[in-house]
Amino acid sequence: MTPKILCIKSLELEVEKIMSIQEFAFQLSKKIQEQHSVKISRSHIYELIALDQDYRTYSSFVAQNLLLDAQYDDSEEYYQHELVDALTLEILENPPETDYLNYSEDDLHWDDYEGNVLLEQIRKIIIRLKVLLKLDASEEFYLSISKTVYRELLWLNLEVINFNAVREELSYINFENGKVDDLELGGDYFEFSKIGAIFEKILSYAQDRENADAYALLGAYYRYLANQIAPYGRHGSNFGSRWDNNKQKYINSDETKKNKEKYEEYIKQAEHFESYIKNSPMNLHEINLDADKETVYNQILYLCNRGDTSAIEYFLYEEIFKNHGEAWLYIYLAQMCGVDFTQDDFRDYNAYTGEDYDDYGPIEIAGREAIQYAIDLSELDVDKDNLARKIAAELFEKI
Measured between alpha carbons, how far is 308 from 259 in angstroms, rounded to an integer? Predict the structure, then answer.
């Protein structure tokens, strides 16, 4: 099944046919009509593509991803093609178990990882086809169409940017702690250097959809450009200046001046795009905790309201809250999200290995003390406590 690509990567196109997703939809729609004598619209094919990419609808797929390219390569068949060709309704309903006493790698197996994935995907396609086609037809009929759909999707490779996934990984990068290269993302590589070639596409996507994740990527791109000039930031980099042993200092040059100007322009651009996400950080890593107190308060509060228990923990233990009523409100919200900060949460582990302590080796203890003992936190009177619980419940309903 086509893997979900989360970032830009280099592709070998020796045998792959570059094909728009519209062309693929037309081709598959025509093939289904010819092979199964049933009309299926291209919009229905889009929905099946989204299903293949683990999205409920095509709208949700394009709302979170920028489709860059599509390749179709039917020059060879895979093991999954053998499985789907051999699949029958009986096998789908009662998958045979592998006889491990007489095991052979040449046999088809329906109860291993590949077999389970195929059967599950075929079932999903059948369910979606029934919703889309609304035909009073047999299970055999829907299975035959599903097999055709599955075979074709195996040959379709989509190159997309999943902005949300990329943004999350970018939030952990420190652009002032050494030179940044490519970012590994789920086995693929995110190449910053290629963003320039599709910058306008990303910008258009961000503006048209008001997509915060896309704006975050644009900001990170300019941070990357600045990093290539000054890997350790404004105060820790030499900007191409030359060290003079006699004078025991860096000597500036015209190149140094140009680099500093470029750096400042890149940082200005980064801050411009980051302003779009200032009030909606993805996690604590996106927050500049050295900013003014009110900004930090509002940003962390945004995460707390989304049920981010790491943010709630920081909010409580660093005493970011403005009053005890607000503190208890988020204690109650965290409890609804499955974390109880009124209880101690310690674990002992082996100081050498980091694994749970097994009575051998040096012991270390990590965790947190119950919030009411860690800070000076008074209990609320009945009315205020009820109000805090009520607001917490309302916030939880919105998560």
Answer: 40
Residue 185 C-beta-side C-alpha neighbours within 13 Å: 27
Q: Measure the CA–CA gap between 328 and 321, rounded to whole angstroms.
A: 10
CA atoms within 13 A on the CB side of 239: 19
Interval 182-230: pLDDT, tens = 776 666 677 888 888 899 999 999 999 999 999 999 999 999 999 999 9
Q: What is the mean pLDDT of the chain?
A: 89
Burial class (CB in 10 A: 0-12, 13-18, 19+), 392: buried
What three-state secondary structure class fits 98? coil
- What phi and psi values does residue 294 have, to the nearest 5 degrees? -65, -40
pTM of the model: 0.77
For residue 355 the two structure tokens come to 């694994």
Quick: pLDDT tens for 120-136. 999 999 999 999 999 99
Structure tokens given for 6: 């989360």
Is the CB of residue 19 less than 8 Å from the CB of residue 72? yes
235: Cα separation from own chain's centroid: 33
59-to-2, 167, 208, 387 alpha-carbon distances in Å: 19, 20, 14, 39
User: What Cα–Cα distance (Å) separates residue 215 from each residue in 162, 195, 209, 265, 356?
Assistant: 13, 13, 10, 17, 41
- pLDDT for 115 equals 93
Q: pLDDT tens-digit profile of 154-177?
A: 999 998 899 998 999 999 999 999
Contacts of the segment 230-236: beta carbons below 8 A, 24+ positions apart? 230/176, 230/259, 230/263, 231/176, 231/177, 231/178, 231/179, 231/180, 232/176, 232/177, 232/178, 233/175, 233/176, 234/263, 234/267, 236/176
Range 139-143, long-range pairs (CB < 8 A, 24+ positions): 139/89, 140/89, 141/36, 143/87, 143/89, 143/92
What lies within 8 Å, CB to CB, of 205 at 6+ separation is 66, 211, 214
